[in-house]
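Convert to structure. Protein one:
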Amino acid sequence: MVKRAQTIFLITSETFLLAVILALSCINSSAQCTVKQADLPAAPELLGFHLGMTKAEVKTRVPQTVFGKTDSFGVSKTTINPYFDPNIDKTKFENVRSVSLDLLDEHVTSIWIGFDENFKASTADDFVKLISESLHIPGTWSDWKSRGRQIRCADFQLIVTTVARGPSFRIMDTAADETVAARRLAKEEEQEALEAVKTESEEVVADKTAKIFYTPNCPAAKNVGDTNKVIFKTQMEAEKAGFKLSPDCQ
């Protein structure tokens, strides 16, 4: 009877644990947003802008748009201020303070829209409900910084906060951020490689008595007397000759 009771207890415990795991799995699944950029509708809160639109399409939407210089990574930016530019049709931007766009390779990768205090959704939570319905975004939003909310979907991120008593909304292409980061890293590695080649290719001073050599920019090289001085074309050449780098240069 005792063994049978133990067996029943183990089966019951395993069944309960499996039920808990399945429940948590369902919760996590429902909390995730799997929507892709391509599936997003033209929400009125986006004011006719969308991720992936070209510079030409932005200019068609707002002819007064002036883009900043594109940097070496392919990034450019612009900010549209409807109430500071008398040539912009303000009826298209009611209750809008500013629209900031980031572009990569001449395509929009980030849209940041700031609304004023008269916008119909005045708090971050109210705007989250509004934009979730407009963009058909399922899932649970999480806290962002002190007063904001955010949600990550398949290939984009949404952030909502409040600025000067008005809601501020940003949608970003997460893959574009990764592309820029990769380009920056590649540029840094390229510069480091060039510096290494430059250093290796410069002549180095060595002390034939101490059997040490000095890097081109090492001040201690000036202390080597003419009788002990020997010049190598590269650091590699000095190392092959049995010389070691001076501790003063490390």
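Protein two, convert as well:
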Amino acid sequence: MAERKPIHIEPTSETAKILRLVGDEPITVETGGVRYRIERDERATLENYDPAKALAALRRSAGALAGIDVEAFKKEIREQRSQDSKGRPA
């Protein structure tokens, strides 16, 4: 099979917002009586991965949470995780 040509979609567009709701399962969209299958391409996730840049970013972020109230932070995270969101129940 030939490599598929990517179509760029602006991250702030309505189409991008809909795609973010989809999750990991393929979806079928229909327009003008024609159906299209859309699925996440996991291969693209690591195409531009640069381990040296990732490590440098981690090192730059060291200490970013210094001085916070750790227990309050963990409580806030637990509360956020317990909230339902559209298409993704808690």
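The chain has three helices and two strands. Residues 46 and 54 are 12 Å apart (CA to CA).
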